[in-house]
Amino acid sequence: MDDLDHQLLQLLTKDARMPATALAQELRVSRGTVQNRIDRMQHQGVIKRFTVELSAGEKDVQVSAFTLIRLKADDGKATIQSLRRISAILDIHTLSGSFDLVAEVRASSLSNLDQVLDRIRALPEVAETQSHIRLSSSKASGY
Question: Is 52 helix (H, G, I), strand (E, B) or coil?
Fold first, then answer.
């Protein structure tokens, strides 16, 4: 990946629906160049998906939490695959320290969050969980 790819990714991170022509104008390259680079990055797995970011008002009616997960075994691949099948989980990250994973969970209510946490705790390799409800967010610079 070169500098142009990184600039393109930064623009797409801010607005994934930005038209290729607008991206091309911003980057001062042709529309075809932009489209070819997006296609290549998708094919290479650099871009995995395009997503929707909810407005602050819509986020306020949802409950978001970070769930720390300690596993019984060292290899968490099967657990990560199981977690990916839970639609309320937005992201999963491996960690160093006393917990092995952290999952970002978004649910429509505290009751639904509790159901998702029950599903996580029911996974066979999960030894312990600890959840922290998000109260507010602020955007960091960069991507």
Answer: coil
